[in-house]
Task: inverse folding
């Protein structure tokens, strides 16, 4: 193999006392903003199995991910149809890369 994968550790885990993360933080998607900032979009699970998608900025130290800064909630259950018996919200987030092609005439 021309490469080697090295696990550096856990980047994000539930923050004690954070209501939306009491049952876990898991299965994040990731993305890069136009300015190069890296983000995680984790599934945050609150009491009662209520899931939200959060937004967390990845903190880099000398180019290596060392932690996150939580930036809030990106998606939350707001409509009645987003709630079931014993659960609510969204499942694991996914991201898709979109790019622009500029045509000159």
Result:
């Amino acid at each position: 193999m021309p490469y080697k994968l090295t696990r550096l550790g856990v980047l994000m885990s539930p923050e004690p006392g954070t209501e939306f993360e009491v049952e876990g933080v898991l299965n994040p998607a990731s993305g890069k903003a136009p300015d190069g900032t890296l983000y995680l979009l984790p599934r945050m699970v609150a009491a009662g199995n209520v899931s939200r998608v959060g937004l967390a900025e990845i903190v880099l130290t000398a180019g290596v991910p060392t932690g996150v800064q939580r930036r809030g909630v990106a998606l939350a259950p707001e409509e009645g149809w987003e709630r079931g018996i014993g659960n609510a919200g969204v499942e694991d987030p996914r991201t898709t890369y979109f790019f622009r092609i500029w045509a000159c005439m």
The chain has a mean pLDDT of 88. The chain has no helices and six strands. Residues 16 and 22 are 7 Å apart (CA to CA).
